[in-house]
């Protein structure tokens, strides 16, 4: 009998080998996929890190779109609308804020729609006079790709994450490698704030429009070709023009934007010059395709191509740019189109210049980063035009660039940062010198880290002295300058001095940490013990009877205990309610009532209770008070005396040996008035008493 050979082990081995191979292949493929995803992720991350970030928009057009509140009429396209639509006139005619964000015909249509999706709001009206090239170009231009890393970074940052990844992966490796080399080869420099350029635009072209009154002459490549060649390419190219594959998806996105309450209209771009729109065979066919797609998506065109066509005499440097005369005509035509759509009065247009003045400062402050600063050296004058000292002063917000002899503030508010050394002497002040654009002294309020510390007149020969004793040392301080009484800032062009359009207020020139002048020290004379004992008894009776006004006839003018009186020179003082801003030499009470607090040092311990005299030195504004009430730690003070020369003396008793005491003052004056009321100045602040110094003496 013959038996078959048993080959079961061989089959099993082959099956095992096949499975092992398949597993290895799958592992390899998974590794390849994982590695590829990792590489793509690293590539996208690298691009993301290379693209600049800033709280301040890269261009003024972006500032208008992102920051100006709505509802707005927004013109978006390439540069044809920048020159052709006067948005100042549109806003005035329709009594609605109009802005022109049209920038460059070479930028990506998809990205333009993305920023509209991101920053338009319900009630906005968007007009799209897109250049012809937008309807057939599908690829990103080299210029647009290169500028995404800096001047066009906001296009990238306006995208959601998935679109940012797609955009990053679409960028050519050669460009990315070039940007990496550029960053590695460039030393970091302290750049001026980009808000400066945006501020100039806010002063000169606040709504984003600008056109020239006369032609600047043909630009490169214009004279060598006809208008049709310039706009749509040579004959062999334009005869084959078809609607780009990206147009239908773009229209679908605009439909969704319309559903969110954004009104969208298309328009034809302006063209000027000979040979424009002269080839009906290709032009009418391409135009018909465009209109069919736009109308099919539920949108319409405002006007016809011929209504946007102008003669050679109106052309500026390219067929897409027209001079002011044609701009005025085209703008009025656009106003008519918009009125026919029912857009009209919804309120006064926003004053964009005033809005930009304040908002740009806020954006600069948001951009400020932590500093590791070189402290100012006590006793050394720092000149603002000397590069050697620029690392000691950070001009954070509100400034123009360095000039010879100093630096101009752009507006009525600005901030700089300095660091104080750890070994400042007592009563140190920061002395700031310079001049004003108005030529007259301007009142300047100084805040440090959000707290008002000084106020006074600043100008040529009138420096500011900012007290710095008690301020944090060894860390960057935010010092804010505010001009509360100044009007809108003027530029040299505004007042006919030059063509400089920059608005200017204060010109800071030097800064120095120095010792303040020594305050007056009160002299105490020794007298017999009996008068003081009598005085204290009288004070106690007055306190027990809750008397508001002390009988000064029983109190000697000077007194001491059998042990020497302990004068306290300028105790730590905190102003409470009822005061105007700090000035160089003191602080004004607003009305009849105000509060303050000061610290009792331990050296005044003389038993329990302890008796004190608090002397306030200053001047009365117009009328000496007929009486004064002083409440110390909730109790009416026994002594409250007013001297003609402006000295207020308060006697009180406290069981505290140290710590803070609170003082509330009430001056009874015939009438509270302001310098304006008396015809002294335009200052309309009501004033009563100017407190210069405080002396606390143990009696």
Topology summary:
Blueprint: H1 8-50, H2 60-67, E1 73-75, H3 79-84, H4 87-94, E2 98-100, H5 109-119, E3 125-128, H6 142-147, H7 153-157, H8 161-170, H9 173-185, H10 195-204, H11 227-232, H12 235-238, H13 247-259, E4 263-267, E5 271-272, H14 280-296, E6 301-302, E7 309-310, H15 324-340, H16 352-367, E8 381-383, E9 394-397, E10 407-408, E11 413-419, E12 428-436, E13 442-448, E14 451-458, E15 464-467, E16 476-482, E17 506-515, H17 529-544, E18 566-568, E19 573-575, E20 587-588, E21 593-600, E22 610-620, E23 627-632, E24 635-636, E25 639-642, E26 647-654, E27 659-668, E28 689-698
Parallel strand pairs: 1-2, 1-3, 3-4, 4-6, 5-7
Antiparallel strand pairs: 8-17, 9-11, 10-17, 11-16, 12-15, 12-17, 13-14, 13-16, 18-28, 19-21, 20-28, 21-27, 22-26, 22-28, 23-24, 23-27, 25-26
